[in-house]
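Input (Purine catabolism regulator):
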Amino acid sequence: MSITVRELLDMPHLQLRLHSGKTGLDRQVSWTHTSDLPEPWQWVSTRELLMTNGMSFPASAADQERLVEELDRVGASGLAIGEQMYCPRLTQRFTAASERLGLPVLWIRYPMPFVAISRAVAEATLLEQSQRLIRTERIYDTLRRTAAGDLTRSRIADALTKELGCPVFVCDRLTGQAYHPEGPHPSADVAEAVRDAAQGTLAAGARSIRSTGGVELLVGEVPTHEDAVLAATPAGNAGLDGVLMQHAATVIALELSQTHLALAHSRRTGAELTAQLVDGRAEARGARRQLMGAGLDPAHSIFVAATCDEPQRLRDLHVALWRHRIPHLTMVRSDVAHAVIPLSDEAVDVVENSLGASARIGLSLAMKTVGRSAEAAKEAVWALGTAQRTGDALVRYGDAMVWTGVGGVEDAQALVQRWLGPLLDHDAQNRTDLVDTLESFLAHQRSWQRTSTAMNVHRQTVLYRVRKIEELTGTQLSETSDIVQLWIALRARDLLGGGRKS
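Output:
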């Protein structure tokens, strides 16, 4: 067993003196930590005694009270302060908080070296340290003893639960719920406590918290996986501390890395099929077989086209869909994520939530058949274009029709060809910029000067180009009806994925 704060006080040669927090004298001390840094609770984990000379100790009553509360929150054993050093006067609020929370505050008599206290703790916990070393070795041995298998459940968390003698969970940082689709799953109150504790940076080792249901928890970071945290409920004689949690988290990190590698391989395989479907190159029978094998029935599946300000979220879309058990195919092309998902609100919600507040998402109608996949992909891109132009987070194909007055992709293509086709052909053959000039001219309310400034060309050049546009399209840019037709054609071209040059 660890030594307690009371037992440290009872050692005559240490000459420690209690200032406050007498109700917490039975707190166990597994290790000591010396720090004179501001906000020292950032560096202390559960069952550790913080020792300080008080060089950065706060002077105000409010800051001193916060220091006690933060040390208690992270599960520290207590606070020991060097006498006759640099600590300012302890306030009544500090003392009251110590008593209220049962966090012992000790005075270290000058010139007692701090290392003497550290040595006393180490010698008193030799047996525990030996046991920890054995348990640490067995934690790492779980990797060897745990066979690879279904990615949907954390087999390492199951093995650690048996090894450590208490429930262990790999949790999503944002929700507190199980990271793996099949768990193991924490209870609702544990998930809530983990979610609240995991906001921001966790303390070194593990943070000790208590759920609303009274469950004591240790919550720690998972190295190299910022979206995951490790939680354990060390009830009874589990004897779990921050050091063991760090080792357990390292093993969990290795498992997650292996899982993500396997998911990346699966994504690459699916990306090739997605590209074939988007481009209309998929052989119907083989593609249908692959879709069904991925859990996607073409009759009840849709295409998604999405963008957001965080490219990593686009690349990790397949992970979010996997974690929520949503069948999918994904690929990223030219900063746009294309995906095939089931036609369900749940699947759409996962896409929207995983891409964040900056997401712009377009959804197609049901694919129905493999033969309609390319058209469905265009519908999704069309809807995405509407979302980008209107600022809506999500647009379903059909909603875009109301905005443009165009009946569908085929109508849009016909409209573009009718009004912009001559300009597109001329630009391609002569390396001119008639379409861009038309776009800018209309955007600047048909002002010659503003258009020339925006395009960095002479005003006479704009005049010549506008006359050429009118000649090729048979329109008059002084006529409202012609302006409307050209403007709608430009918007249809944007929605079809052929927008303005960057």
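The radius of gyration is 32 Å.
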